[in-house]
């Protein structure tokens, strides 16, 4: 495992431990563009259900990633929200579902 894979594997492990998600989907420049030294990891966390408002959901993930030393952006959505939002063409969720890379789950 090279030095770039180590933080990535640890980020995945910590997010899985924090959320027990159905899927983790990588998107953004790491998948669609040309990542550089300033690029972060954009990760969609798919959960079954939650009562938390959308804006509060990433807190648990950021707390789990504290000290990792690699910038990450986290979106947390339920399966229902992903299905609904992803059905709308020209939205970020549609692009994530169509072109993102599943890194955990199916």
TrEMBL record:
- Which superkingdom does the taxonomy of this entry point to? Bacteria
Q: Does the keyword Membrane apply?
A: no
InterPro entries associated with the record: NT_sf, Polymerase_NTP_transf_dom
Q: Which SUPFAM superfamilies match?
A: Nucleotidyltransferase (SSF81301)
Q: Keywords for this entry?
A: Transferase
Q: Which CDD domains match?
A: NT_KNTase_like
Molecular function in Gene Ontology: nucleotidyltransferase activity
- Give start and end of each Polymerase nucleotidyl transferase domain: 10-87
Q: What is this protein called?
A: Nucleotidyltransferase-like protein
